[in-house]
Design goal:
With 818 residues, the protein is mainly beta. It is built from five helices and 45 strands. A hairpin with a 2-residue loop joins strand 42 (748-757) and strand 43. The longest helix is centred in the first third of the chain and has 18 residues, at 2-19.
Length: 818
């Protein structure tokens, strides 16, 4: 009992002793303008040992800081990039509850910087009230990789082994380039992003709660890719090349310069992708009448193209900026497949089909912007215009041999050519006004005109008379025009740790669909109005911890790719076509996000829920002739709950590890057939570890795991992939050489998908080559004539904590940028 009493007394005494601490607080401001210095660094040392810091911390976004200390004499050192360091002696007396240092003023440094020595790795992810930002410039692998590889590491974004991109588990999202929609990328994301060098990208923003200023299109949200632009005098750039053991190769170049009032940024690439022969197959079992269809064969793909994107800016004065951007992507891709087909049961036939197809896709866009700034910081008027043309042409030729019992004779050949695409004109006016430090407003108007069309030409070789003839019965042409007039208003509020953004957007759509077939011709006009609300809250729990909540409604209007009635019957047992009767789908999205960022560990977690009552869903059915039809319909009633997580751990300056995960529970049911439904869990994970070794040498390993994917009728098999890379920098870090090996222990990998419908079950499988080696080289060049005054010192971890979390209201607290 006596021992227990002594233990209790000792514990209480210890708690009492440690409870005798004093809160030391203050605020860091600039000497000249008295403005706060967000995320400045505070170092604390005992006066007896000033070289040994006992604490390091970062100020919040208003320059405020606080820390608890026991009685004693201390030396505080205050640091901010571009400012002279300030030291202050602080004495903490016994019994004091608080020591208020007041406002500590830091003066701009007059010392020119010879070189900055960075001894810490910056956080890769920044949290704002309505988005997450991944810093591509701080990813060590970006110098020799492409943007598609970069996206694998971005929170909430997943890229599978077939290069399909998902945002929060959804394939329905929009991709922007520098804040503007890019059909060039959205229509062909994997091809375009594989051709873009990652070293031309500054940031990748994942806008989970798009505000009123953004178009309502994109159910899953928006991925905004921001290219790197030079802000100081001089030029910088890079050239690179790559090749792989599949037979693919490419070259790229990037240039950014600024001289006086003129600025230019451009990047371009040529690419050639080659996919060795894969084994493909299909089995389809029909229950009534009983029939089994089997297809086995081989398929090979190859193709290449050119991509470029340029931007020219002219700063007339400090208040007026003009910008012109031009971009283009064009590629031609060829595919060949040969299959043996066997049908047994109610329909008995067999044949060999050989198909050659060509697809030409691309986009051309030009945009102009005028930005008018005002004396009030942050107030801005922007007027912009954008033109975009998107061709999407295809053709194929199929020949039938060894035919037994089929309706095409041996030697029968069919050809089909589809000329499709569209143009788009967009005019826009935006105005932003930070009324005060706490309140801000934004308003804007926008008008979009779209004109899409599809024309087909179908012929066949008549074996009987040896002539090519027109096949008028397969005619399915389309003209589709769309006019969207929209306006929006948004309000932002920020006080202390709390932030709020409210917005309302109205969009009126008028469209006309002109359908032309050999049997009939119809014009279907329609118009509708969408009111799109959005709201987002944020609360800063600490200097590096943020909690966010948001709601938004999103709209997805079907484009030519979904509406096109052209029938692709290159495989007569599996045909594909669009649906001219599709309507826009509406989705309601809720998100809760928590982010924490520290010197060594930062993580971000998002819980989301989405509901779409009329989702555009892939629909598969088998007709009475045994032909599988693949099309789209507005029949999905879709609910999804998802949990996403991102973790980055930097235990030392040598090692950085990241993990990007997502798990969803999806429940989807047909609005027309209660029996047609599907539900289940799906998950994705991507991990990376990078070692930064002496002599500018880096080693990294990547791996991804994808579980089954849930669709209305289809479930896909789980799969995994992995890769290893080694990179060496030479000539004072100007030349990077990287060797990458993908899936070295798996030459092939099988993918399966199972589709169920009324009276049938169909399984597709692909045995794809996976093992490959790729060699990449990048050479950087440039000079620096910076007129910015900087401090000659080492940047610490705390200097870059500003990259961790911020709230966006009147501003996002980037004043401490390095």
């Amino acid at each position: 009992m006596k021992k227990l009493f002594l233990l209790v007394v000792t514990c209480f005494s210890t708690v009492f002793i440690f409870a005798q601490t004093t809160n030391v607080r203050g605020q860091l401001v600039g000497e000249s303008d008295k403005k706060s210095l967000p995320y400045a660094t505070i170092s604390v040392a005992n006066a007896a040992a000033p070289q040994n810091y006992i604490k390091k911390l970062a100020a919040d976004d208003n320059g405020n800081f606080s820390t608890t200390l026991q009685a004693g004499n201390y030396i505080f050192t205050f640091q901010f990039v571009g400012m002279n360091n300030v030291t202050r002696d602080v004495k903490v007396e016994n019994g004091e509850s608080q020591v208020d240092l007041g406002k500590i003023e830091l003066a701009e440094s007059s010392t020119e910087l010879g070189e900055i020595s960075v001894t810490a790795q910056r956080p890769l992810v920044k949290v704002e009230i309505d988005k997450l930002t991944y810093s591509a410039k701080d990813d060590p692998e970006s110098s020799t990789s492409n943007v598609l590889d970069l996206l694998r590491k971005v929170p909430l974004v997943t890229v599978d082994g077939e290069d399909n991109i998902q945002l929060k588990g959804s394939t329905n999202f929009k991709i922007f380039m520098n804040g503007k929609p890019s059909n060039m990328i959205s229509n062909n994301p994997s091809q375009v992003l594989k051709s873009m060098p990652a070293n031309s990208i500054k940031d990748v923003e994942v806008i989970t709660d798009p505000g009123a200023k953004y178009d309502a299109e994109g159910v899953g949200g928006i991925i905004n890719i921001i290219t790197d632009k030079r802000v100081d005098e001089g030029y910088s750039g890079s050239v690179g090349g790559n090749g792989d053991t599949f037979g693919g190769y490419g070259a790229n170049a990037y240039l950014s310069l600024k001289y006086g009032k003129l600025g230019f940024t451009g990047n371009g690439a040529y690419f050639y992708h080659n996919r060795p022969t894969s084994e493909v197959g299909l089995t389809r079992e029909e229950m009534s009448p009983n029939n089994m269809l089997t297809q086995k064969g081989r398929q090979a793909n190859r193709g290449g193209g050119l991509f470029y994107n340029t931007s020219l800016s002219y700063e007339l004065d400090t208040l007026n900026l003009f910008n012109v951007s031009v971009g283009q992507f064009g590629g031609k891709f060829r595919s060949n497949f040969e299959q043996d087909i066997l049908s047994k049961g109610s329909r008995n036939y067999s044949y060999l089909i050989n198909n050659n197809s060509v697809m030409e896709i691309g986009s051309f866009n030009i945009s102009t912007d005028y930005q008018r700034s005002f004396k009030k910081k942050g107030e801005m008027l922007t007027v912009s215009y954008r033109f975009e043309r998107n061709p999407n042409d295809s053709e194929f030729e199929s020949k039938y041999d060894n035919v037994v019992g089929f309706y095409y004779p041996t030697g029968y050949t069919m050809k089909s050519l589809n000329d499709a695409g569209g143009i788009e004109h967009t005019g826009q006016v935006d105005y932003v006004n930070p009324i005060s430090d706490k309140h801000s407003i934004e308003v804007g108007l926008k008008y979009i005109y779209r004109d899409n069309s599809s024309r087909g030409e179908n012929t066949y070789y008549d074996v009987a008379d040896g002539q090519w003839k027109e096949d008028a019965g397969r005619k399915n042409d389309l003209d589709h025009t769309q006019r969207i007039a929209s306006g929006y208003a948004g309000y932002g509020f920020k006080t202390g740790k709390f932030g709020l953004k409210l917005g309302l957007r109205g969009e009126h759509t008028t469209q006309k669909v002109h359908f032309i077939s050999v049997k009939n011709e119809a014009v279907v006009p329609s118009n509708f109005f969408d009111a799109v609300p959005s709201v987002a809250f944020s609360y800063q729990l600490g200097m590096t911890k943020t909690l966010r909540w948001g709601y938004n409604m999103r709209v997805s209007r079907p484009g030519i790719w979904y509406l096109n009635p052209y029938v692709n019957d290159a495989d007569p047992n599996n045909i594909r076509y669009g649906n001219k009767d599709l309507n826009a789908e509406q989705s309601h999205n809720f998100n809760i996000n928590y982010g924490s960022f520290a010197q060594k560990v930062n993580y971000n977690t998002t819980l989301s829920y989405s509901y779409t009552p009329n989702s555009i869903t892939s629909y598969v059915f088998v007709d009475d002739k045994g032909v599988t039809h693949n099309t789209y319909r507005n029949i999905g009633r879709n609910q999804s709950v998802g949990l996403s997580g991102f973790v980055s751990w930097t235990p030392t300056s040598v090692v950085r590890m990241t993990l990007n995960t997502n798990i969803n529970y999806t429940q989807i049911q047909s609005a027309e057939d209660s029996k047609l439904k599907n539900s289940g869990f799906s998950g994705r994970a991507f991990g990376n570890i990078t070692f930064t070794l002496p002599q500018d040498f880096r080693l990294s390993a990547n791996g991804g795991l994808f579980s089954t994917d849930i669709q209305l009728q289809t479930k896909q098999s789980a799969f995994y992939f992995y890769s290893f890379s080694a990179m060496k920098s030479l000539f004072n870090k100007k030349l990077d050489i990287s060797l990458n090996v993908s899936n070295p222990f798996n030459k092939y990998r099988e993918f399966k998908s199972t589709t169920r419908g009324d009276g049938f079950v169909q399984e597709n499988y692909f045995l794809n080559p996976m093992r490959s080696f790729r060699l990449s080289l990048t050479y950087r060049f440039g000079d620096l004539k910076s007129s910015v005054k900087k401090v000659q010192r080492t940047i610490t971890n705390e200097d870059v904590l500003k990259g961790g979390s911020s709230q966006e209201g009147a501003g996002t607290g980037t004043g401490g940028g390095s």
